[in-house]
Amino acid sequence: MATIVTGQRAQEVRTSRSIRRGSVLIISLVLLLLAGLYGLMSGSIPIPAREVWSSLLHASDSESRQIVWNLRLPRVLTGMLAGICLAISGTFLQGVFRNPLADPGIIGVSSGGGLAAVVIMILFPEKIAYLPIAAFLGALTAAAVVYALSWKGGASPMRLILAGVAVNSLLGAAMTALMILNSEKVQSVLPWMSGSLNGRSWPHFQTLLPYAVIGIIASIFLIKTANLLVLGDDAAKLLGSRVEIGRLLIILLSTFLAGASISIVGMVGFVGLVVPHIVRLLVGNDYRILLPISAMGGGTLVMAADTAARSWFDPIEFPVGILLALLGAPFFLYLLRKGVKR
Predict the structure, then answer these.
(1) Does pTM top 0.85 for this prediction?
(2) CA distance to 152, 275, 276, 278, 339, per residue, from 336 (Å)
(3) pLDDT per position as a tens digit, 70-97
(4) pLDDT tens, 230-249?
(5) Which of the listed residues 103, 301, 302, 315 has the most CB atoms within 10 Å of its CB?
């Protein structure tokens, strides 16, 4: 009798978990669509939802069509892709390192891509077309250095975090020094350093799209590996996972996604840190559901924050990276304090 009751209880728990995860998934999708609509409607010239819909479906020479199709839509879509890339990157890194504080900005990946991008923009502005490739190579180099420094018969999560923090500080100092030595060119770099979607158009979206598609498809194939690594190295090895290869592949993918995003929208932080952390509290550690919800959450956050940054402070356009930092840091401290109490 006790066995039957226990089995029924376990089934109820599984059913409740499935319902909760399905609800969160649906809500995330709805929020993503609403954030996109909000971005198309809001701005210095508000446009009603009906006009937005008409502008998307019917080609015309109207002012609403020009604003929605040529100005707001590519910016909204670019922000969505950037948020998705950063959220997937942060979600994987937190799982691989088994540390909720891991994200592209903390372990040096963002700084590596940022330094390479700053070098292009300040020293080789005529090579600006190679900015995405340079940012990715910079992020990849930083990840390789972190991995090499942390290797000692294997790369443990703790050593990776410590090496990443050190490399991040070094690269940040190098960026600062480069800007001080070229102070006359800093003005063109500051918006990118702050993280901004200002002026992003269809070419930017088309540049980021293939990187995002490749990264999303690759992430699907690494879900099983990520789920095993969350259990710990010893358990993953017992289950047949090649731990070091799996960890290296996930770090490379996270680097690829972060570098692609950084090259287009600049140093946008806290997306890969806060979003996966919140989603993990809601749905747990299973990457089959954690990854898609985090991706949608990242896209929603960046789109909503960018819309607020360009419409709430009109006529001044606030950099979305600064707004995310102002909102994300206190919220993350709240989550951290709540976790400590638990």
Answers:
(1) yes
(2) 31, 13, 13, 11, 5
(3) 889 999 999 999 999 999 999 998 888 7
(4) 877 777 777 777 877 888 88
(5) 302
